[in-house]
Design goal:
The protein has helices at residues 2-10, 28-35, 48-61, 91-96, 102-116, 132-138, 178-182, and strands at 18-22, 40-45, 67-70, 83-88, 117-127, 143-148, 153-156, 159-162, 165-171. It has 183 residues and is α/β, with parallel strands linked by helices. The strands form two sheets. The chain has a seven-stranded mixed beta sheet, sandwiched between helices. Strands 7-8 form a two-stranded antiparallel ribbon. The longest helix has 15 residues, at 102-116.
């Protein structure tokens, strides 16, 4: 959570940027973003129980401006669009573990992300299941890597690794179409 807020502050991301927390869970990340001055915050989760919990956390913290919604990211509603920043701190991992067509669900996740995130918007993902190289491959269509965020390292058998991967991607601008020139 801290590494995400630090990155946003370091890159002077405007406080009125629209932020989507994909799989918000208890909503604590949104509360911390609000405490840091971010104002346009939305959290979604497919679990009604998670949204109920995040509503309680939001109310306890007095952050009534945070929008929360039960929504399946793999089938986003039309109104879920135009975000400047999307943040994932485990939802892609959960989708990847789905026993029914995990590869198809991962592809749907990437398509959904392309629909909800503005061109040139930022996607910040934290994963404990995927390496940097694997995430680069999964998000190669429509996204480019901007930065790898620092995460704790460990040493085992003489090799150094990370228990968590945190990356910042940027959605690529759509290429101009021949049809655009006909107008």
């Amino acid at each position: 959570m801290v590494r995400i807020i630090r990155w946003l502050e370091k890159h002077q991301v405007p406080l009125d940027s629209s932020v989507l927390d994909i799989g918000t869970g208890n909503g604590v990340l949104l509360v911390e973003l609000a405490k840091s001055g971010y104002m346009n915050l939305t959290g979604i989760d497919y679990s009604p129980s998670a949204i109920q919990l995040s509503e309680k956390v939001r109310e306890k913290e007095g952050m009534s401006n945070i929008k929360l919604k039960v929504e399946d990211f793999l089938a986003p509603s039309a109104e879920l669009s135009g975000f400047d920043i999307c943040i994932d701190k485990g939802t892609f991992d959960a989708v990847s573990l789905n026993p029914n067509n995990a590869a198809g669900k991962r592809q749907q996740y990437v398509r959904s992300l392309g629909r909800v995130l503005k061109p040139q918007g930022f996607f910040i993902i934290t994963s404990c299941n995927w390496t940097k190289e694997e995430l680069l491959n999964e998000f190669r269509e429509g996204f480019e890597i901007l930065e790898e965020l620092p995460t704790p390292k460990f040493c085992f058998g003489g090799r150094i690794g990370n228990s968590v991967t945190a990356l910042v991607f940027q959605r690529k601008k759509p290429r101009p179409s021949i049809l655009d020139k006909l107008d």
